[in-house]
Amino acid sequence: MISGLLNPWIRDLVPYSSARSEFSGSADVLLDANESWEGGNSGVNRYPDPLCRALRKEIESVMGLPYDMTAIGNGSDEIIDMLIRMFCAPGRDSVMIERPTYGTYSVFARTSDVSVVDIPLTPDLDLDEEAVLGGIEEHRPKIVFICTPNNPTGRVYPLEAVLRIADANPGITAVDEAYADFAADFRSAVPAIMDNPRIVVMRTLSKAYAAAGARIGILVASPEIQGVFMKAKPPYNVSLLAQEAGMRALQDAPRVRERIAETRRRREELSSFLSSLPFVRCVFPSEANFILIRVTDAASLYSYLLGKGIVVRNRSSDPMLGSTLRITIGSEEETGKLKEALDGWQG
Ligand code: PMP
To answer: Which of 59, 76, 80, 286 is the pocket-test mutation for ligand 1 (most atoms within 8 Å of CB)?
Structure first.
């Protein structure tokens, strides 16, 4: 079923067989991978586990994502790139995005010479289900990316709408749930993979798990797609240091929960503060660890904040996001500095 959607050169690929994938038992003398002997048998002198087994077991126990349905990317960004390379033929196929959304879906499509069908959100920045369904009918994209909660709006789309799109879509529906941990009562698309194996989900340790520097993205997919990803990815795509850092991030579960609760609390406080400012025209309700605001003059406010040593993101270049800034929820201290600076703005 999935094999008909794959690029034939990926479907028929004979994967590179690495030393660590040919032998994964235990032995004292490792002379199979042209590594250095100095540093022993488990240091950075050795290649990492290409299958990230320990990390995936930890992900299963902490995040509840089944082991045989997960694969790890060098960030979700690598997963996005890989999905496009697995399913889209250069110069012929397209992917669909709902704009404005996270920028790398389009960039990775273009680096593979894959075109981008871009469906605008509704004027109040919600998913335009009818337009997406019409676009699928018309353009037959190989992958429909859906980002929920969406970056940069912070909006969660109803799971029912996401699943209706996925069911109508004969191609792959890739649901990016990078910010899911920050959303209240979030309903993931992961359980729906059982009924519809054309759904794949992306999660990451870069946000709620505070490990962006480790570059750990998680693909959750049917075992069939997971298997193809494993064979098509670079053999050692997740470094030993990254796998270890990912393990540590996951093992700190109480702190992860506290951090999420703190982030949500601060997000609500900051939202009401922002709403009270005369130059803030709109605070878009957010379920993520950032808030999008529309202000009277985004460019001047951006430069003013920069002058105070505070960097936010100016999102105004998108036609639907005129005069908007996206602000990440920082620490208590960072948020305090931001509020103080905003209080002093005479916009
Ligand atoms: N998806 C979304 C929606 C994002 O906003 C980001 C990063 N800003 C990513 C994926 C990339 O995540 P990672 O760090 O896992 O590559």
So the answer is: 76
